[in-house]
Each structure stands twice: as C-alpha cells, then as structure tokens.
Amino acid sequence: MNKIYVFDAYGTLLDVNSAVARHAAAVGADAARLSELWRAKQLEYSWVYSLIGRYEPFWNLTERALDHALARLPSVNAALKPQLLDAYRSLSAYPEAADVLRSLRSQGSQTAVLSNGNASMLDAAFSSAGLLPLLDRVISVDAARVFKTSPKTYALVTAVFNVSPSEVTFVSSNRWDVAGASAFGFRTIWVNRAGLPDEYLDLPPVKIVTDLQGVIANSANK
Predict the structure, then answer these.
(1) Could you say which of 8, 15, 142, 177 is catalytic?
(2) What is the pTM of this model?
(3) Among 44, 134, 175, 216, fewest CB within 10 Å belongs to which?
C-alpha cells in the first residue's frame, strides 16, 4: 500500500457547490447555473494565468469568477456577493471525507492536500470542515506560484515528503488534475461522482471510484 495519500481540495474533499447551495433560496432559480459558472471561470482563470506566466492568489481568482458569474446572471441579486464569498471560505466537506482520512491514517498512511487554494483560504476551509486534524500537510501551489497542472505544483509534494512520484497516491475528482498528476508520475485515483465519460485516455488513473469510500477499498487491496 502507498503510504502517502494526497488529495485535491476543491471538488474532492470540499463540495464547491455548497457555497451557493447554502444561499439557494436567496439566489433563486439560477442557483445551479451560478455555481457552475463560478467554478468554471475560477478554473479557467487559473489555467490562463499559468499559460501566460502570471500568478494571482486563488482567492483573487475566486472573487473575480463570482463577479463574472453574477454579471452573466442578472436574475441573481449581486448584493449576495459577500455572503457567497463567506460561504466559500467555509465549504462543506463531503460526508465521507473525515472517515476516509481517518481510516487511511489508522492504516499507517500519511494524508495531505495539494490545492490551487492559497494558504489562508485552505486553512479557513479545512478548519471549518473539521478536517485539519486529519491531514499531515496542506500544500498550496502558492509556493510554486503557478497552478495545477504545472509539474512544478506536483513537485511540491515530492519535495515536502522527500519521496519519488511513484510513492504517492493522488486523489482528485477533476479529470484534468488526474491527468496532470499521472503525467508527473503519481499513482492516481479519479473520484468520478458525476459518472462523466473518461478523457485524457493516454494519462489514465489506476482506479476510478464513485466517491471517497472507494479510496479505502482501493487501499485495502494494495
């Protein structure tokens, strides 16, 4: 069994849709669309900035993405912006997340996060979700000043733990992130909650699971 399990944060351990869901009644009929646009633009900005060689803290991109989503959806009251940003600082964890992290540690594994999030937003989110005591390290790409899927981001993990890529199991719900981690040499698990078709077929995960519990089943068979 690999002794180091590294998780993506947003969409993998933390439910990115929970911020809007918390205020769904106030947001109205376009709540799902707002959440989708917010997330899509947040990621798009991270990729564009990485490609042009610039860096902004992920929180800045998160706020700009919300501004864009609100501008695209005039049916949503833009005055909800502060509440939505506050909710993003305290996203809900997926219900199985704590038990999975606890189980991995009981098996002797180390657990960590590698995230695009900057340190302050990650500390706030994981403290609020109650997961911080279950993580050995929370690693932000801030240290590399570039976003995933740059190899420099995944190299932060091998540097922190002083291991080779093959000694790390990387878990993400984002298929593009799995592709990047696979290219770097990590052993990867894709948490495909939505049953999406596979992509990046030349950079496959070693395992596809439907929720985080599948990571435990996978570890027990190693």
Answers:
(1) 8
(2) 0.95
(3) 44
CATH number at residue 125: 3.40.50.1000
Strands 187-191 and 137-140: unpaired
Domain count, the chain: 2
For residue 181, pLDDT over 90 is answered with: yes
Last residue of a domain, one of 89, 112, 144: 89
Residue written as token pair 């929720």 = 211
- Quote the CA–CA distance of 142 and 194 in Å, as a whole number: 29
Convert the pLDDT of each residue in 67-92 to its tens digit: 999 999 999 999 999 999 999 999 99
Evaluate if residue 2 carries a pLDDT over 90: no
Residue 1 — pLDDT band, cuts 50, 70, 90? very low
What domain range includes position 47? 18-89
Residue 172, classed as helix, strand or coil, is strand
Q: Smallest Cα–Cα separation from 11: which of 124, 89, 94?
A: 94
Distance, CA of 173 to CA of 2 (rounded, Å): 19
8 as an active site residue: the answer is yes
